[in-house]
Amino acid sequence: QVRLVESGGGLVQPGGSLRLSCVASGSIANTYDMGWYRQTPGKQREFLARITKGGSVIYVTSVKGRFTISRDNSKSTVYLEMNSLKPEDTGHYYCNRVPAITRDGREVWGQGTQVTVSS
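Now predict its structure.
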């Protein structure tokens, strides 16, 4: 059974940092490209960053230079290091395969972790 367990979110002041972790069951994190996504109320989930099996990384413009995605295959874990956080980074963060895992035609997501950037 596929499981994605995100952690590391919290409340942080603008300019602060957080490190998110995502443990993926089985060989998902070791076998596929993995990504981090963010969802805010009233908006669709948006893609933020991707790390390929080979370790290449891609970021959307809004987080480039501030966020760093990495993976530890020995721990089946993907990380998102977030620095210089802004209020607009507030949201619920999820990790998943790229493209997202599906089962019976529906995307499968973990519970995510909430990040709130506020003074």
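The mean pLDDT is 95.
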